[in-house]
C-alpha cells in the first residue's frame, strides 16, 4: 500500500494513458505530438522526483533536442535562468500582478521574442518558478501518505490531512499560484501542468482507496467529489475567500475536514 496504491490506481498505463490521449485529441493547446511527448515527460519527471527524492532535469522540448546545437542549448538555458531570476526579483519588489512580461525582458536584457519562446505568458513563467516548491511539496505528501497508510490510518482521514496541507501550500504561494490559474493555465494547460493533475489524482486515489476499504459508500461519485473538494483550493477562489470574504485558513480547513467527515457519516448509515 502507501505509495503503491496511488501509483497503481492512478499512474499506471491503464489509468493515465487514455487520459493523456483524450487530452491530445481535444486540446488544441497541445497542438502536436511533441507537446504530448513533453507532457508525458513532465509527468514522469514529477513522479520519479517525488519517489526518489532526486532532482531530474529535461534539457528542453523535443524540438530543442532534435534541432539545437549544444551551444544553442546552453544559451537557451542561460536565458531561461536569467529570465526566471529577473522575474523573481521583480515580483519580490513590485508584486506578481504588477509586473508585465515586457518589463521582465527589458530588465533581463533579452528580447521579447526570446522571452515568449521560453514562456508563452506570465502564468507559464510562474509555473517554472514554482517547479522546486511543487516537487518538494509532492515529496512531502507522498512520504506522509505512505507513513499514514503503513500505520493503517483511514483513507478519509488521510484525505482530510492532504486537503489541509494543500491549503497551507496555496496560502504560502498564493501570488504565483493565483497568476498561474488566473491566466487560464487550468483552462488550457491544466493538461500540461503535472502538479495540478497530481492533486486530482491524489484526491481520487484516496477516495477510491477509502471505497475499497469500506470507508466510503459505493454510490458516491468519486470523480465529482474530487472536483468539489479541490474547487475551493484553486488559488484565485482561495484568494477571494481569504482576502474578500475574510475567512481564515484555519476556518476553511475546518470546513474541508467537515465535508470529508460528512462522507464518512453518510457511509456509516445503514441502507
In short:
The protein has 271 residues and is mostly helical.
Characterization of this structure:
InterPro entries: Homeodomain-like_sf, HTH-type_TetR-like_transc_reg, HTH_TetR, Tet_transcr_reg_TetR-rel_C_sf. Keywords: DNA-binding. The chain has helices at 3-11, 13-26, 33-52, 62-67, 70-94, 101-108, 112-118, 122-129, 131-150, 155-172, 174-182, 185-188, 194-212, 222-230, 235-244, 249-268. It contains 16 helices and no strands. It is mainly alpha-helical. It has 2 domains: 1-67 and 121-271, Tetracycline Repressor, domain 2 (Orthogonal Bundle); 69-119, Arc Repressor Mutant, subunit A. It is elongated.
Topology:
Layout: H1 3-11, H2 13-26, H3 33-52, H4 62-67, H5 70-94, H6 101-108, H7 112-118, H8 122-129, H9 131-150, H10 155-172, H11 174-182, H12 185-188, H13 194-212, H14 222-230, H15 235-244, H16 249-268
Q: Can you write the helix and strand succession as a string? A: HHHHHHHHHHHHHHHH
Percentage beta strand:
under 5%
What is the architecture of the largest domain at the second tier of CATH? Orthogonal Bundle
Structural class: mainly alpha
Query: Given the structure, what is the number of helices?
Result: 16
Helix-residue proportion: over 70%
CATH class of the largest domain: Mainly Alpha
The tally of strands reads 0
CATH topology grouping of the largest domain: Tetracycline Repressor, domain 2
Which outline best applies?
Answer: elongated
Biggest sheet character: none
Rg estimate, integer Å: 20 Å
Mean pLDDT: 75
Q: What distance lies between the first and last C-alpha atoms, to the nearest angstrom?
A: 29 Å
Q: What's the structural domain tally?
A: 2
Q: Which residues form runs of ≥5 with pLDDT under 50? A: 1-39, 45-65, 185-191
Amino acid at each position: 500500500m502507501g505509495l503503491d496504491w496511488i501509483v497503481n490506481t492512478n499512474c499506471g498505463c491503464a489509468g493515465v494513458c487514455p487520459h493523456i490521449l483524450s487530452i491530445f485529441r481535444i486540446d488544441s493547446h497541445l497542438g502536436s505530438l511533441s507537446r504530448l511527448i513533453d507532457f508525458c515527460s513532465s509527468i514522469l519527471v514529477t513522479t520519479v522526483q517525488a519517489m526518489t527524492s532526486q532532482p531530474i532535469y529535461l534539457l528542453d522540448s523535443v524540438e530543442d533536442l532534435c534541432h539545437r546545437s549544444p551551444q544553442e542549448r546552453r544559451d537557451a538555458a542561460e536565458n531561461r535562468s536569467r529570465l526566471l531570476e529577473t522575474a523573481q526579483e521583480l515580483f519580490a519588489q513590485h508584486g506578481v500582478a504588477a509586473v508585465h512580461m515586457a518589463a521582465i525582458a527589458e530588465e533581463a536584457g533579452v528580447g521579447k521574442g526570446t522571452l515568449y519562446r521560453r514562456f508563452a505568458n506570465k502564468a507559464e513563467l510562474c509555473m517554472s518558478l514554482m517547479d522546486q516548491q511543487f516537487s518538494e511539496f509532492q515529496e512531502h505528501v507522498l512520504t506522509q501518505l505512505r507513513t499514514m497508510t503503513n500505520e493503517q490510518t483511514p483513507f478519509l482521514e488521510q484525505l482530510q490531512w492532504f486537503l489541509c496541507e494543500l491549503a497551507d501550500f496555496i496560502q504560502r504561494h498564493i501570488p504565483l499560484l493565483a497568476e498561474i490559474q488566473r491566466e487560464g493555465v487550468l483552462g488550457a494547460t491544466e493538461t500540461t501542468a503535472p502538479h495540478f493533475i497530481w492533486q486530482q489524482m491524489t484526491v481520487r486515489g484516496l477516495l477510491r482507496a477509502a471505497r475499497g476499504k469500506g470507508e466510503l459508500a459505493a454510490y458516491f461519485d468519486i470523480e465529482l467529489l474530487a472536483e468539489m473538494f479541490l474547487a475551493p483550493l484553486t488559488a484565485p477562489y482561495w484568494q477571494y475567500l481569504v482576502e474578500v470574504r475574510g475567512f481564515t485558513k484555519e476556518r476553511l480547513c475546518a470546513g474541508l475536514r467537515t465535508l470529508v467527515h460528512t462522507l464518512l457519516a453518510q457511509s456509516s448509515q445503514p441502507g
